[in-house]
Structures are given as C-alpha cells and as structure tokens.
Amino acid sequence: MAEKEKKKNKFSLRKLIYNDKYLIIISIILAVIIWIVTSINLSPETTKTINVSVAADFSGTAAEQLGLKCYGDDKIDVEVTISCKKYLARDITADDLNVYLQTNAVTSSGTYDVPIRVETDENAEFTVSSYYPTAYRAYFDVEDEKVMDVDIQYSNDDFIEEGYTMGQPLLSESTVTVRGPRSYVSQVASVTAVVNIEEKLTATTSMDLTVNALDSNGSNVSYITIETGGENLTITIPVLREMVLDVTANFAGQPSRLDMSDFDISYSVDRVNAGVLEDANITQAVIGSIDFSKLNTGENTFTFNVESLDGFVILDNIDEIEVTVNVPSDYTEKTVSVSSDNIRVINAPEGYNATITGLSTNEVTVIGTEENLEDISASSVSLVVDLSGVSAEDIKEGTASYKVTTALSNSDTCWIYGDYTADVNITQA
Predict the structure, then answer these.
(1) pLDDT digits (tens, 9 = 90+) for 168-201
(2) Mean pLDDT throughout 245-268?
C-alpha cells in the first residue's frame, strides 16, 4: 500500500505538460516575460521638451572681480529637448539636467552673448537633442549714479476749469537718483515725468508719476533705474479760485491800546488778482508782517517779495509790493538808559549757565506821544535773551552775541524801536 502511495506522489513532467490548468499558467508567465523583454529592447524612441529656469548669477566670477554688474534679466528659461525610450520619458525631469551659463566668457565691459551649456550624467538613458536659447544676452559695465532734477511735462495744458487757476505744482521729491552702467548713465540728459490729466480740475489733485531717463535726443536710455526716496514719485497740483483781493499787511508787537486809525498806511498796489485756495477762507491779500520795532517816527517804507505767499498766488505780473507807514506827527521818541539790571536770560540749555557780559548799547529808543512817554523810565524797559532755540548739542561754551527781545512793562500805547543784542557767556554748570 505504501509503495502505491509513493508512486502516486512522484513528480511527473509528463503529467504537468498534459495538465491544462498548469499549462495555461506557465503560458501566461512566459508571455509576460517575453512582452517585457521585447518592450525594453524594441521600445520606440520619443522626444520630450523640458523647461529649465537658470539664474543669471555672476558672483565669484571674473566679472565680479572687475567690478562689472550684469544688466539683464535675473533669470532665463531654457527649453531643452531630449530623446529617450518612450517608457522612460515620463520620469525624466529638469533635475536630471545641468543647465548653466558659461560665466567666464565675460572679461570686460560691453554686450555679451554668454553661452548656455546643458549637460547630463554620463549614465543618463537619454540624450539632449537641442535647446533654446543657446546664449544669454546682457550688458556688463561698472555701476554709476548721479542725482538729477525732475522735469515735469503736461500732455494737456488745458486741464483747469474756467474761473480757476493752477498754483505751483509740488513734487514729493524734486530730485531722483539715476543708476545704471556708467556708459549709459553718462548719456542721461534729463529725467522727465509726464502728467496726463483728461478732466477739468476744480480742486487740488495729487497723483503718482512715471519717471523716464532721456538722452539729448529725447529717447529713453536703456539699462537705467530711477530711485526715489519714497515708494512712488507724486505730484500735487494746487487748484486755486480766481479772486480780486485788497492788499494789506499785518503788524506784530502792536501795543494793546494803540489806535492804528491815526496811522497813514499806503500800498504801491491796492488790489491784486489772485488765485486762492478755496477752503482757506482768505478775503484779503496779506503780503507780510511789519514789526513795531521797525517803526520810527515819520515815514517808514517796507518792501515785500510777493512771489511766494501762504494760501494764495498773485496772478498779476508783480514781484514786490511796497508798504509805506506814516507814524502821526504827534509821536516822538525818548531815549532811556538801560543796564544789566534790565536784562535777563531765559531757557538756557540743561547743564549750562548763561551770564550777560555786555549790551550792544546803553540806551533804547521808545516811541509814543509826549503824554504817554512821560511815565517811561529805565524800570519800564524789559530786555530778554531767550535761548530756547539753542539745543545742548549746538551750544558752544564761551561768549557770543544773541538777539534781545524788548518790551515795556507799564505802557500799552508806546513801543521800543530798534534792534538790540547782548553778549552772553555760556559755561557748563
């Protein structure tokens, strides 16, 4: 019985071949093996295009050692076409390529076509068929810069509504820095910004400007960058309402009870055509301020430059306006002696002592009517040197001359005429 079972379990190749079930399995396995071998060896060739981004980096090169800067794109995209077996194409990426610039080609200033090189690993299962571009074009030169004024141009001169006028345009920065290759910076003749306004303006307007560097022929200069202190260069165009204003002047230091109606004040121009900021509530053309310390007895003449005034612009062709102030004939002058007892120093910088060592004069001139001058004496005169405008950083030890502010302590109808100074000795405390 055991001998029969042994014969029954003995392996038989003949039985395996003639067993349909095993034969089918073996056939399938052999077919797969043959298909894989055939696919690998007989697979068709294909091409694939791969995009590779290459940085234009010339650091550590001869160009950098020579002080040359690259004026071109920061990077360049290279299209590389490869040939390979079709079954490999999907797995080949930009990481399998070494694409770089042959930077040692740049040895002096000028325009260069820097060769682009594409390399592969020596064991790569693909070849490079072609690539584009084959060179990186840029200009190389030593960097230079210069500061230039901005020239404003208007594409349309008629952009102010009737009844209004334009004030002096204001730029956020009057100058800019022109930077680029030395040979191109030297070609820049002007920096211009074009203001393009299509609608009529009735209110002050601000806008950003685009600035261009131009040569002597008015053409844009290549490779130039224009730097401003802020993010953008802006212009503010004041739009002013046209009005007719009476001319007047202010008076500073006027005694509180002095009646100015007795003073004869005249102007070389009584009325002016002006452009006024609409929200400024300006009803008169105030051309400046006259300090009472400048008013002597008789006729006093003051000249004001009116080319630049706050809140309005005089549209007439006038550069100066003269003001004549006649002090009434019953006003006279009185000389009052003064000494160091009349003067004091205030607001000395912290850590310093200030001492009066002398006055520019031993007397001051007081103006008023004879009746009002009777009560004026040396004790009426107050002289002050105010050092509040001098910081500890700017202070200098030693004696220097400072302006004296004058006042009358017991009179509201008279004033002190003239300019006075005092010698002040400053020492550390």
Answers:
(1) 899 999 899 999 999 999 999 999 999 999 889 9
(2) 94
- Rg over alpha carbons for the chain, rounded to the nearest Å, is 46
Q: What angle do CA 269, 275, 278 make, to 5 degrees?
A: 130
d(CA 20, CA 18): 6
Assign 23 to helix, strand or coil: helix
Helix (H, G, I), strand (E, B) or coil at 281: coil
CA distance 368 to 387: 30
CA distance 98 to 115: 14
DSSP 374: T
* Tokens at 418, concatenated: 């003239």
Give, as one character, the DSSP assignment of residue 142.
Answer: E
The strand order across the sheet containing 205-209 reads: 170-171, 233-237, 205-209
Q: How far apart are CA 2 and CA 175, in angstroms?
A: 114
Q: 0.85 exceeded by the pTM? A: no
Cβ neighbours of 60 (radius 10 Å):
9
Place of tokens 């208007």: 154
H/E stretch holding 246: strand 239-252
**Is residue 30's pLDDT more than 90?**
no
Q: Please provide residue 301's backbone torsions phi and psi, each rounded to the nearest 5 degrees.
A: -120, 135
Helix (H, G, I), strand (E, B) or coil at 349: coil
Query: Would you put residue 219 in left (φ > 0), alpha (ψ -120 to 50) or beta?
Result: beta
Give the count of beta carbons closer than 10 Å to the beta carbon of residue 106: 21
Q: What is the largest CA-CA distance in the chain?
A: 165
Sheet holding 264-267, edge to edge: 264-267, 320-327, 298-305
Q: Count of H helices and E strands in the chain?
A: 6, 30
CA-CA distance, 174 to 191, in Å (whole number)?
Answer: 11
Q: Where are the alpha helices (DSSP H) in 116-227?
A: 182-185
